[in-house]
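Why do we care about 3D structure at all? Because function follows from shape, and shape follows, mostly, from sequence. That is the central idea of this module. The next example makes it concrete: a single protein chain, its amino acid sequence, and then its structure expressed as tokens.
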Amino acid sequence: MMFPLVTDLSADGVPVTVSCRVLKLCRQQYYRWLDQPISDRELNQAYVANAVHDAHIDDPEFGYRFLADEARAAGHVVSDRTVWARCAENGWWSSFGKKQPYRGRRGRGGTPAHDDLVRRRFNAAGPNQVWVADITEHRTAEGKVYLCAIKDLWSNRIVGWAIDERMKARLVVTAIETAVARRGDVAGCVFHTDRGSQFRARKVHRCLARHGLVGSMGQVGTAADNAAMESFFALVQKNVFNTRHWTTRHELRIATVVWIERTYHHRRRQARLGRLTPNQYETIMTPTATQAA
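And the structure:
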């Protein structure tokens, strides 16, 4: 944009007509720019860039198409191609995408992982001492469904869960908020997960801090470090997901919730709990746990 140069030359005494002729600019466009230095189009592009940047910070694994969806969900009318252009200009690429060329000193890295506080000791002496969480998925005719579940290792009860069509950080946040609403004061409870990008998102870290939860993460690519949730998801796959072909996400969502709340909690007896169900175990053991505390 050469119009600011015309203004500077005019301040030095060079007529606008002469400057525009030399710089091959339209004098009428210069005066329109002078009345409104920032066009509506440029302002709109700035708002879109802010929305895309916010979505990229919350979920660094998103590609430009998902970021475009987030921008449209925020109320902006924008195409995928426009969002790609903004991403290309600013280097906002998916953390799962191609490696970027080295350009000297790098910027601030992603949110660091938590230390492993559980170390494969999947037990707890009382309620709300250790929670484990993970995400699984299953396909329907409409597309994938993602389930995030949180288990209390004391009673094996699923204290929080969330189901959505997108695997985003807010899926984890919703599950945590559900668990906190059910369990009350959970300050000091260890929240153990794998090192997936959803669990490392800033939204999740802020949610943990807000409720006083202590983050813990297993090693990369080691399923045994979160075996308690892997075993639960194996039950979900066998008893719900793989029982039939699911036409809609809503059907699978309802079936999953019913199985967790009715069958798993109330009817499925577990050897580790003395052949009691999670609900029976909590009902019987809660007074004991309270007295011990």
